Structures are given as C-alpha cells and as structure tokens.
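Hi, here's the filled form for the chain we discussed.

Project: internal
Contact: R.S.
Residues: 159
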Amino acid sequence: MRDPNAADNLRSLATAHPDQQALIYNGRITNLLKQIEAWERALAKCRAENSQEGQLMRTIDIATVKAAVNLLLDHIMENGLGKLPLNEQLYWKVLDNEKYVMNKTPGEPGVGDLFTDLDFVEAVVSDGQQLTALTLTELGPLLTYIGEFAGESLAAKGG
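And the returned structure, exactly as it came back:
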C-alpha cells in the first residue's frame, strides 16, 4: 500500500506517535500473514482431499457429456450436415502410455485410422459388436474430425 494513511478511517495512525504507528503497522502485517497462512493451509487441505498422487481431480458427469454431444450433433445436423465426407484416413496420436504424463515430452507419435475407428463405431450400432467402453477411444477421433469439418463448413456458410 503506497499510503497507509489512506485506509486509516479511524485516524488511529495519523494521531499516533511514530513508535505507536510502527506497532500498528507490525500488528497489521502480523495479522495479514496469519490470514495468508490460514488460507494456504485451507487450500492445501482442499487440494489433498481432491487429489490423487498430487494431481487435482474433477468428476466427469457422463450424462452431461452425453447431453453436450447430442446437442452439438443436433446443431450440426440441423444446419444441413447429416452426412460428412471422410476425406482423411490417418491421423497422429500420442501413445496411450504417454498422453497423460506431463513431466516429459512424448516420444514418437502413433498413427490412428479414422476408417477403422468408423468401422468400430458402425459395428456398435449395427449389431452391438464392440459394445465396450474402450470403443469410445475410436469415437473420440471421429468426433474431433466431425467438429473440425463441420466447424469449417458452417463457418464458410456464415454459421
């Protein structure tokens, strides 16, 4: 604070002896440091309660994600994009054992295949094959492609 007297609404600093002013300043500083320490302890406790191996955790509400995906796909379809050409087949991907390790740069990227991903997703719909949670890993790249293609296409139309 540049001018401690500016916040002295009780005028206790302005009328105090310089030795008394120093005691007031020191008392305020000590009080603020204690408040900071208390907030730091509370923050550390909160982090500890919401972490796993030092990493902050959040919860994914699957119903919310499903609703968002449905709304976004409905939006794309309502804007005339019910079917999209799959103009790309291969894509780069970070390998599974490296994608969440942030303390080192990933090694060589892997290669994913949108055609194969689409085959897995179509099998789920047509006959219930591949009906496993892991099939979502094939859906992710397809959703990325759809978002990129639709975003570019709709932006070109002004929407």
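Let me know if anything looks off before we file it.
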